[in-house]
């Protein structure tokens, strides 16, 4: 099977490098200058510096050239997914489309697979999610991810096609659980970064991770997810990685909030927009998501960290 990766950001580039170990891979970038630069240097210095391209990786600027049978990995930020699908609808319709983004869309409250289904009903959507930093994948370090597809047969095919020697995919048909695990953990990672940045301690972080996981489960189970999906790679696994590593951009945004430092707003931080989307969705569903609400307060600058801490600690005592 040959693959095209749409989106030459850090993650798309890392996946293209990894998959090129087992066959021809095309990496599409929207900016012609970027395409020419990558073709000349055989690297993506803008988004994933220091990772050389294997020979089997071709950088392209025209999606119309790809074969009809090709599977396409969509590696653009969540809030850009719908307009990307709309912009390339004629090429993407009817294909197997594997979303590689983590988040909930503002406005619709939908995850990536639902956005694909709504925008391009003839496509066969799937989702790749779980704990993995782009740099680790590009370096060939061992990584395990979840491949979610409602259609079990297609899911099994994609699992086989997209696994490599170092990238081990587990499959599930629980799409909603996989979507929410990957999306909601980023919000909790911002909260964890904030407590560490403010010097509130490792115990506070462990409490946030645990109670954050309870929030993740609350929303996911209410929407029909399976509890074991949240306990898997796209849930507990990614929560553990993202809430504890300086390599995570979501965690680093949190650190900057805790330290009252500026943060470069051009960096992709999926948890920021997702917090706003989830707070809105939780209100409609009448779900209690106090940690997410605090992160929303940080993002829209209506809440300070001391206020958030006081708010969380003053909540009525309850059973675990
Ligand atoms: N980085 C990581 O370690 C991981 C990331 N992910 C997920 O992957 C997704 C992408 O993140 P990542 O690659 O890191 O982000 P980056 O910020 O590195 O790159 C985003 C890419 O998306 C492209 N893009 C943005 N908007 C559009 C659009 N409208 N049409 C086409 N292309 C567009 C950008 O193009 P341009 O360069 O021209 O601006 C850029 O190449 C996120 O959902 C993230 O959560 C998942 C696991 C790991
Ligand atoms: O999703 C990721 C790790 O699994 C990447 O995390 P960040 O988007 O926070 O950098």
The ligands bound in this entry are: NADPH dihydro-nicotinamide-adenine-dinucleotide phosphate, 1,3-dihydroxyacetonephosphate
Q: How much helical structure, as a percent, in the residues?
A: 40-55%
Query: What's the shape?
Result: globular
What is the tally of helical segments?
15
Domain Glycerol-3-phosphate dehydrogenase NAD-dependent C-terminal: 174-308
Main location: cytoplasm
Binding site for sn-glycerol 3-phosphate: 102, 130, 132, 185, 238, 248-250
Catalytic activity: sn-glycerol 3-phosphate + NAD(+) = dihydroxyacetone phosphate + NADH + H(+); sn-glycerol 3-phosphate + NADP(+) = dihydroxyacetone phosphate + NADPH + H(+)
Protein architecture, described:
With 320 residues, the protein is an alpha/beta fold. It has 15 helices and eight strands. The protein has helices at 10-19, 32-41, 78-87, 89-92, 112-119, 134-138, 152-162, 175-197, 202-222, 227-230, 233-242, 249-258, 270-285, 290-299, 305-313, and strands at residues 3-6, 25-28, 57-60, 71-74, 96-99, 124-129, 143-148, 167-172. An eight-stranded mixed beta sheet has the order 3-2-1-4-5-6-7-8, sandwiched between helices. α8 packs across α14 (290-299). The radius of gyration is 19 Å and the shape is globular. The termini are far apart. The model has no long low-confidence stretch (mean pLDDT 97).
Short structural summary:
With 320 residues, the protein is of the alpha/beta class. Helices cover 50% and strands 12% of the residues. It is built from 15 helices and 8 strands.
